[in-house]
Amino acid sequence: MKRILFVGEGTVSDAVRLQLPAVELTRIGDTEVSYLKLNYRNETPKAEPGADAVVFSRPHYDSLLVSYKRQGIPVIVDMDDDFHSIPPEHPGYNHVGRGDPVYLERLENCLYLADLLIVTTEELKTRLSQFNSNITIIPNGWDSSNWLWRAKRRIVRDRLTIGWGGTITHRQDFEMAVGPLKTIIRKNKNVVLVMAGDYEIYNIFRSVPEDQKMFLPMVSYDTYPYLLSHFDIMLAPLLNNEFNRAKSDIKLVDAGARNIPFIASDMPVYSDWTAGGLLVKDDEWYEALDKYLRWPELRKHDGDAGRKLAAKREFSILGDLWNTAINSAIAAKREEILTPE
């Protein structure tokens, strides 16, 4: 029985990159998992003995990783964003980007210290290879055992809903869709805009009639599929900048898993999604929205196609990748201990 400790800060990334793998590893068997939530800025965490491997999400407390390595425990670091390329106008720039050099220095130390680095995309692997050569790609996925992914779609007053969900970090990304959405809503009284998570983005549409908009607070990842059940069409706008080009395709995975057609920015990160929705340039949002409104058959076709693609990202499949990666890190560390230089 191997014992794996997952360590994070309780972010959304933890839910997808730590908790889902932990659950699936437990299902696979012969694995005991635990999850440790830390507040790195207010705590001085200490290494807990007894683990066969420790998996960190976005770590920046390098002394903790050193403590585990001194115990001969393999350290695995998981990264799903390139913090070095966060633009100055991004809310995270002064906290986890170049606006906080100390944070980035500690993050870089963690990347150097890792016995194995796991990333979400090929682009992220290329960028982080300067810090570590032992890198495995495991994309984002979803847990099909959560029945909410299959829950009945919520019908909003017998109208068609266009939905978006996210945090304050996507405010600039969303700007490209604002004008086309206002025009579509004005021309189509049967359309309801559903904004989830960031009230400031919802507030951009304060001039829209109350019966044509809805705000939903963000929920835990376990109940996130229920939130998505309010969407008939999902939006995924992204600015074409260095930071976004290293992001994962989690938005489209979620849309496919929930059988929702998407309209997304035509970015390299979404290039594998050859079905399931519409990839658009910055000036093509209105045409895409209008196309989906006029063609319900296309919406259904694309939703079904996205669901088939998302099936390849079920954690029953990705769990094997995590298990193999962790086992290889454990085996390599044991070999290192048995054959020291």
Can you give a write-up of this model?
With 341 residues, this protein is α/β, with parallel strands linked by helices. The protein folds into two domains: 165 residues, Rossmann fold; 167 residues, 3-Layer(aba) Sandwich (Rossmann fold). The chain is built from twelve helices and twelve strands. Strands 2-1-3-4-5-6 form a six-stranded parallel beta sheet, with helices on both faces. A six-stranded parallel beta sheet has the order 9-8-7-10-11-12, with helices on both faces. Helix 2 runs parallel beside helix 4 and helix 6 crosses helix 10. It is globular and about 70 Å long.
Give the tally of structural domains: 2
Global outline: globular
Estimated radius of gyration: 21 Å
The end-to-end span amounts to 29 Å
Q: Compute the number of helices.
A: 12
Strand percent estimate: 15-25%
CATH class of the largest domain: Alpha Beta
Total number of strands: 12
Name the CATH architecture of the largest domain.
3-Layer(aba) Sandwich
Give the proportion of residues in helices: 25-40%
Considering the protein shown, what is the CATH homologous superfamily of the largest domain? Glycogen Phosphorylase B
| CATH topology (level 3) name of the largest domain | Rossmann fold
Biggest sheet details: 6 strands, parallel
Mean pLDDT comes to: 93
Which runs of at least 5 residues are low in confidence (pLDDT < 50)? none
Strand order of the largest sheet: 2-1-3-4-5-6
SSE succession: EHEEHEHHEHEEHEHEHEHEEHHH
The computed structural class is: alpha/beta
Based on the structure, what is the oligomeric state of the protein chains? single chain
